[in-house]
Amino acid sequence: MNLLGQSLQELRALAQDLGEPAYRGGQIYHALYAERRFDLASFCNLPAAFRETLAEASAIDLPRVVRRHISGDGSVRYVLALSASAKQAKPATVETVFMPEENRQTICISSQAGCAVDCQFCLTATLGLVRNLTAGEIVGQVLVALSDNAAALKPQTNLVLMGQGEPLLNYDAVFAALRILLDQKAVSLSPKHVTLSTSGILPGIERMANEKVRPKLAISLNASTNQQRDQIMPINKKYPIEELLQTCARYPLRPWEHIMFEYVMLGGFNDAPEDARRVAKLIAKLRAKVNLIPWNPGDLPYQRPDASRIEEFQRILIDKGVLAFVRYSRGQDVMAACGQLALLQATAAG
Ligand code: SAH
Ligand code: SF4
């Protein structure tokens, strides 16, 4: 059994199964997630005899770093090998990105290997769905990125579920992982600093609305009409824009929270001033922000708009009272930017 990804309750039950009091499970939980120890021999809060029993019954199976692609801007794209397990029969490879900033770091993790959603502008889609990740593999990505950069960590860690995969199509594992990542007694990230991005899986958003512990919600809008969105995001035929926005209107935002709409800007396709006006109208009644993401090149038939076009789009949104930001992705030279995660070798040094 992989200890990583196990909840407090599961670890308490494990301790009891191994003939120890339940509180020993709490000690494992603390050593693993709060102290981030990955070697059972170093769990000094446990008696030596129990450490041995535990080592026979379980392991700490962290994703294995196959490659680090280091970008000129300091971000690191990790290629991680995930082994087969009781929960997932086949091995897989995914990517995690670590982005250092002055006072914080942002970690971007994958929720699935590949993705089935098939957005036309996204390189991950070309992999198809390989498999879901387990809770341990999702938590493990964060722990690998933190421990690999332990010497240079800043006080704040932001986490985004924006790597490979559609998180709301792997709901149970993603939320099992998030409960550990957001628990102040475990990895202790703040819900204000964790963002889950979805292509708009409505049943998943509705389920997320009822979670006690949940990250912020980001939605990949990426188009201003159904006709346009149908062309680049086939999921729009199942969950069209008006239903998506109705679900957003019902979503219970916390006082400090906005819904983040992501809008990948595809030159000549969705970047016209009329698009900006339509986007402003669509989300006018919501407490929302818009992140404009200039398209990052991959081997796909799209292009990034000119800077002036992007600025004009943003200005129209702002003039209409919408909070709008342009987000240039980091790590493009090592294929670490949004939509570039498809296990490719970087062309630049890294
Ligand atoms: N599957 C989820 C999360 C991962 S994608 C989702 O789609 O929301 C994270 C973001 O990257 C999404 O907003 C997606 O629209 C965007 N994206 C995908 N390919 C891109 C590309 N080539 N350039 C810029 N952004 C891209
Ligand atoms: Fe999947 Fe997101 Fe890429 Fe769409 S944009 S194919 S949902 S990873």
SSE map:
Layout: H1 8-17, H2 23-34, H3 48-57, E1 64-70, E2 76-82, E3 92-100, E4 104-108, E5 112-114, E6 129-132, H4 135-148, E7 156-161, H5 171-181, E8 194-198, H6 202-209, E9 216-220, H7 226-232, H8 235-238, H9 241-250, E10 259-265, H10 273-282, E11 288-294, H11 307-319, E12 323-326
Helix pairs in contact: 1-2, 4-5, 10-11
Q: What count of helical segments does DSSP give?
A: 11
Work out the helicity level: 25-40%
What would you call the quaternary organization?
Answer: single chain
Largest sheet: 10 strands, mixed
Q: Helix/strand-derived class?
A: alpha/beta
Mean pLDDT: 96
Main sheet: strand order: 1-2-3-4-7-8-9-10-11-12
Shape: globular
Radius of gyration: 21 Å
Strand content: 15-25%
Distance between the termini: 35 Å
Low-confidence stretches: none
Order of helix and strand elements from N to C terminus: HHHEEEEEEHEHEHEHHHEHEHE
Number of strands: 12
Bound molecules: S-adenosyl-L-homocysteine, iron/sulfur cluster
